[in-house]
Amino acid sequence: MILIASGSAGVGKNEILKRLLLRDHQFRVPRSWTTRSLRADDFGGIKNYRFVDHETFMDKVAANGFAEWKEVHGGNLYGTPIEELNDQSARDTLLEIDCEGAIDIKRMNGEVVAVFFLPPSYSVLEGRLRKRATDSEDSIQTRLQTSTKEIARVAKFDYWIENDDLDVAVADLQELIATLRNGRVPRYKFTNYELLSRVRSTFPLSATTA
Predict the structure, then answer these.
(1) How far apart are CA 37 and CA 52, in angstroms?
(2) Which of 90, 123, 146, 208 has a beta carbon 3.0–4.6 Å from 28's, enabling a disulfide?
């Protein structure tokens, strides 16, 4: 199984996945490429980056070496090398990538399972971004605008999980994974359109009309 985990900045997906990997040792985390600088929070996180310069990255783009790649916040480039997806060294693969990248890979491989983590509301998401105290006001506004576009596209994912309570969200993700591994159909809660509509209703109008 290739599991893609996505969600807006500030939703808490990194912490959810860190806790998952402490409990589930069947996943391999591919090594993504990025042109951004190394940060303190790269140590101990779930992401496994190869840090390269812009020229090296674009050379791989020209060689069609990425399953998906995007320019995101701050003009940095991120990409998932094709060879990482073809690695069969583990039973399951876990990808943490942005919404657009997830949709791109899902379009290429319909067997990929894509999960989106929802915030309880727009205001909660904004509060989490501000509480991190790592972004400028312009960066926060850019991330919120991006999240509005992402929320409008959640229905393109296979399943979605609300992160209102971290422990509950981790347990929900574990339940979903166990269900899929056993070849069973996940419960309705993972495709609950009433939940999705409620969350969308707290976002700017474009999130409900896109």
Answers:
(1) 9
(2) 90
- Assign domain 2-29+90-209 to its CATH architecture: 3-Layer(aba) Sandwich (3.40)
Percentage of the residues of the chain whose pLDDT score is greater than 70: 91
Lowest mean pLDDT among 53-62, 108-117, 118-127: 108-117
Residues 76-91: tens digit of each pLDDT: 899 999 988 877 666 8
As a whole number of angstroms, the distance between CA 102 and CA 178 comes to: 21
Instruction: Report DSSP state, residue 38.
Output: P
CA-CA distances (angstroms) from residue 100 to 20, 43, 184? 23, 25, 28
Tokens of 194: 């009433």
Assess contact for 157 and 192: CB atoms under 8 A: no
Q: How far apart are CA 31 and CA 199, in angstroms?
A: 32
What are the tokens at 126? 């904004």
Rounded distance between C-alpha atoms, residue 47 and residue 17, angstroms: 10
Query: 94-129 burial by CB neighbour count: b if 16+ within 10 A, else e?
Result: bbbbbbbbbbbbbeeeeebbbbbbbbbbbebbbebb
Within 10 Å of residue 78's Cβ, how many Cβ atoms? 22
Question: Contact at 8 Å (CB) between 3 and 93?
Answer: yes
- The whole-angstrom separation of Cα 149 and Cα 168 is 26
Average pLDDT, the chain: 90
